[in-house]
Write a structure and sequence with these properties.
By secondary structure, the protein is α/β, with parallel strands linked by helices. The chain has one domain: Trna Endonuclease, Chain: A, domain 1 (3-Layer(aba) Sandwich). Helices cover 41% and strands 20% of the residues. The chain contains seven helices and seven strands, in the order αααββββαββαβαα. The strands form two sheets. It has a five-stranded mixed beta sheet, with helices on both faces. β2 and β3 form a beta hairpin. α1 packs across α3 and α4 runs parallel beside α5. It is globular.
Length: 151
């Protein structure tokens, strides 16, 4: 009941990039959690010291378990490939993820994007974040997430 009430409250959630940029790191993690809930996931913010590259963990009946690693940066900063290595090493083995995503309000290096694409670590850069957060486009429309049959 509480999850449904929260989802209904968040159904129209839109966050501009200016709002995202003004957030602190933890507020960014909570915002990502809320965006997942808006898109039909159950989700919890779990980030803290020693979180093993998981800031938000969610579940969706069609897409499985998701782990988001949030990288709130200054505008123009880029997330490097080492973050992709960390997420790849922990998302499945430690957190049981079907899907792993690195989300930043900045950018990613070319190496980080290419490595993520090659090894199955999804990424959301500033442009994708704007589509997801500000325009309200659901995550499963932005990323090629796995689909499981219901039932």
């Amino acid at each position: 009941m509480l999850e449904r009430t929260r989802a209904e409250r968040l159904a129209g959630l839109r966050l501009s990039l200016a709002e995202v940029d003004a957030m602190g790191d933890q507020d960014f993690e909570y915002a990502l959690r809320d965006l997942l809930v808006r898109d039909g996931w159950t989700a919890d913010q779990v980030g803290r010291q020693g979180d093993q590259a998981a800031d938000v963990i969610g579940h969706h009946p069609r897409h499985g378990r998701i782990v988001l690693q949030a990288k709130h940066t200054t505008v123009g900063a880029k997330v490097g490939v080492q973050v992709m290595y960390q997420v790849k090493g922990t998302a499945g083995p430690v957190h049981g993820a079907d899907v792993a995503v690195v989300v930043t309000n900045g950018g990613l290096t070319r190496d980080a994007m290419a490595w993520g694409d090659q090894y199955g670590i999804h990424w959301i850069d500033r442009a994708r974040l704007e589509s997801w957060a500000a325009a309200g486009r659901p995550l499963h429309h932005l990323l090629p997430l796995p689909r499981r049959p219901l039932g």
